From TrEMBL:
Predominant place of localization: Golgi
Family (UniProt): Belongs to the glycosyltransferase 47 family.
Entry keyword annotation includes Transport: no
Membrane-spanning intervals of the chain: 15-33
Compartment(s) of residence: Golgi apparatus membrane
Protein's UniProt name: Exostosin GT47 domain-containing protein
Taxonomic lineage: Eukaryota, Viridiplantae, Streptophyta, Embryophyta, Tracheophyta
Domain Exostosin GT47: start-end pairs: 7-244
Length: 303
């Protein structure tokens, strides 16, 4: 937002929404004793913060928070906002952990895609085998985090040649390579509803299979997830293979094409890229404009 310049204003009368820049991650780091399961300090800090905003500025009271937004990708984002009723019920909460059972309200809240770039770079993650070359029907690798994973591992780990489910990958097998040669990538919820696997699958052009209850996927106000993902309720985990085998080749090819179409909406860029421009072209332009060089890993550095 700051780089774009067209989105932010310091003139409150120009503003459509007001950002509440508090960080749940920082609060967990400074105000939480690991293992204590005692969130009081965090909750009090957020409540104090909103009190100060409401006392110092007229804007909070004018809308009771409904034109204010906060953002958190932490698992506790939703919970820690729940002690300030107007923040919870009125404000726009931009959350990774978008669990409707924990009060996520798609008519005012926003799902932030959970993105985990292990190297900090996106290079090498985009793309994969062409759809007809993909030899694995379905793939998952991940630890036993929570009940949904338990159910998936119990039903499918080591049980099938088409649905490959691992808690840890065999030596020498690369996670990214598996994503790139699978047709469908299983994205079960872990301890919380969101999973970085959804974006990993889209990057690798593998159809995401969302296995969750109560998860509102990102951008679902504008993207029709049914067109490019398979949505499997937790109770249907035993049926996963039947569900996937039941998708015809032509439907699979259509979904694959659509995954490639929506991919750009999940790609992180150093700069916003105009919709009509190609990523590489635009990067070139920005690099030239600022007199930067690109290293071999495509990371931009000042000359
Ligand atoms: C907003 O409302 C609260 C609670 O009613 C009050 O304490 C506070 O002073 C008000 N803020 C302003 C700027 O008037
Ligand atoms: C917020 O919503 C909850 C649940 O819908 C409700 O119980 C509570 O009274 C609401 N609080 C306010 C201040 O509107
Ligand atoms: C969603 O929230 C409900 C209510 O807190 C909880 O029982 C459930 O486990 C959550 N889902 C996940 C995947 O964590």
């Amino acid at each position: 937002m700051e780089k774009g310049n067209i989105y932010i204003t310091r003139d409150p009368d120009q503003a459509l929404v007001y950002f509440l820049p508090f960080s749940v991650v920082m609060m967990v780091q400074y105000l939480y004793v690991p293992g204590a399961l005692e969130y009081h300090a965090i909750i009090r800090t957020i409540a104090d913060y909103i009190d100060i905003i409401a006392t110092k500025h007229p804007f909070w009271n004018l809308s009771l928070g409904s034109d204010h937004f906060m953002l958190s990708c932490h698992d506790w984002g939703p919970y820690t906002t729940s002690y300030v009723p107007h923040l919870f019920n009125n404000s726009i909460r931009v959350l990774c952990n978008a669990n409707t059972s924990e009060g996520f309200n798609p008519s005012k809240d926003v799902t932030l895609p959970e993105i985990n770039l292990k190297t900090g770079e996106i290079t090498g993650l985009l793309g994969g085998l062409s759809p007809l070359q993909r030899s694995v029907l379905a793939f998952f690798a991940g630890r036993l985090h929570g009940d949904i994973r338990r159910s998936l591992l119990e039903q499918w780990k080591g049980k099938d040649h088409d649905v490959l489910v691992y808690d840890s990958l065999p030596a020498g097998v690369s996670y990214e390579t598996m994503l790139k040669q699978s047709k469908f990538c299983l994205c079960p919820s872990g301890y919380e509803v969101a999973s970085p696997r959804v974006v990993e699958a889209i990057y690798a052009e593998c159809i995401p299979v969302l296995i969750s209850d109560g998860y509102v996927p990102p951008l679902s106000d504008v993207l029709n997830w049914k067109a490019f993902s398979v949505i499997v309720p937790v109770k249907d985990i035993p049926d996963i293979k039947n569900i996937l085998v039941g998708i015809s080749q032509s439907e699979y090819l259509r979904m694959h094409r659509r995954v490639k179409q929506v991919q750009r909406h999940f790609v992180l860029n150093w700069f916003g890229i105009p919709f009509f421009l190609d990523r590489a072209q635009w990067t070139r332009r920005i690099v030239d404009k600022h007199g930067w060089t690109t290293t071999s890993t495509n990371k931009m550095v000042a000359r």
